[in-house]
C-alpha cells in the first residue's frame, strides 16, 4: 500500500523549452529596445531583484527553513532553491578566505539552450536575471549581498559561474522622529 | 567524362532571398578557371516556381528532382514554415542529398530557435558553416 508523499514542487509544470523560448524572446526584445547591452544587463538585474523579493516568501512557505547561521547555510539554501524552482543543480565552491564569498557553478548558462550571442551583444549577460533574484531574496531576509556573473559558457568559458558576496546584515532602521 | 560530384546548396527565404549558400566539389587538382556562382544562383532562382508547384502535389518535405538545366539537376526540400532548401547537382545522388537535406533541416531548426535570430535573415554562424561542410563532405562528396 503506497501513500503519495507530499510534494513541495508545483504540480503545474511547464515545458522547459517553452520557458527558455519565453526568456529568450524577453532578452532579445530588451536588446532591441535598449540597444546598449549594458542597459539590458542592468534591467535584467532589476527584474531579477523584483522577482527575488517576492519569491523568497514562496520559498520559505514551502520549505520552512529556519534562519541561516552563516553564509555557508545561506549558500546551501540558495542551491536548494535552484533545484526547487528551476530543476538546476549548481555546485557551490570557490569560498573566499573569510567564508563570505562563494560561487554557484552551472555546466551551461541557464535558459540558454539554443542561444548564440550575436557580435553586437558580446558583453550581454544573458542570465543576468539570476544574480538579481539572489540579491532580492537575500535582502528580504536582512542580508545584503552583491551578486554577479563571473563566467559564462555563452562567451566561451568552460562553466557558468555566479559569484555571491556578503556585504552586511541589514538592521531595520527606525523611522526618523522616533527613538 | 562528366564532371561528377559538384553541388551547390542554397537556403531560400520567403522573399526569394538566399539565407545560406554553400558549394561542394570533389577536391580538384586544377583551379577552377571561371567562377560560375552567378549561374548557380540563376538556375536556383528559376526553379523556385516549379518548387512552389510541387509543394502542393505531395505530403513529403523532400521533393526530389524538380527541374533540370543543361547538365544540372535541381533537387528541393521544403520545411514546414515554407523555407526552401535547393540543391544543384550534376550527378544523381538521391540518398546522399536526402540525408544531407534532413541534417541541414535539423541544424536549421536548432539555429532558428536562437532568440537573437530573425526569421528570413541571413544565417551567419561559424558553427553552422562548419557543420554544413562536414555533412556535405559526408553525404555528398565523400
Number of helices of chain A: 4
Biggest chain pair interface: A-B, 13 and 8 residues
How many strands, which pairing sense, and closed or not: the largest β-sheet of chain A?
A: 4 strands, antiparallel
Radius of gyration of chain B: 15 Å
Briefly characterize the structure.
The complex is a heterodimer of chains A (179) and B (142). With 179 residues, chain A is α+β, with helices and mostly antiparallel strands. Helix content of chain A is 41%, strand content 16%.
Indicate the topology.
The complex is a heterodimer of chains A (179) and B (142).
Chain A: H1 16-34, H2 37-63, H3 71-86, E1 91-93, E2 101-106, H4 129-140, E3 143-151, E4 160-169
Antiparallel strand pairs in A: 1-2, 2-4, 3-4
Helix pairs in contact in A: 1-2, 2-4
Chain B: E1 7-12, E2 18-24, H1 37-55, E3 62-69, E4 72-78, E5 84-89, H2 94-112, H3 126-141
Antiparallel strand pairs in B: 1-2, 1-5, 3-4, 4-5
Helix pairs in contact in B: 2-3
How would you describe this structure in keywords?
heterodimer; A: 179 residues; 4-stranded antiparallel sheet; 41% helix; globular; disordered N terminus; B: 142 residues; alpha+beta
Description of the molecule:
The complex is a heterodimer of chains A (179) and B (142). Chain A has 179 residues and is α+β, with helices and mostly antiparallel strands. Chain A is built from four helices and four strands, in the order αααββαββ. Chain A has helices at 16-34, 37-63, 71-86, 129-140; strands at 91-93, 101-106, 143-151, 160-169. Residues 1-7 of chain A have low confidence and may be disordered. With 142 residues, chain B is of the alpha+beta class. Helices cover 38% and strands 24% of the residues of chain B. Chain B has three helices and five strands, in the order ββαβββαα. Chain B has helices spanning 37-55, 94-112, 126-141, and strands at 7-12, 18-24, 62-69, 72-78, 84-89. Chain B has a five-stranded antiparallel sheet with strand order 2-1-5-4-3. Chain B is globular and about 40 Å long. Chain A binds chain B through residues 21, 24-25, 27-28, 31, 113-118, 121, and chain B through 110-111, 113-116, 125, 127.
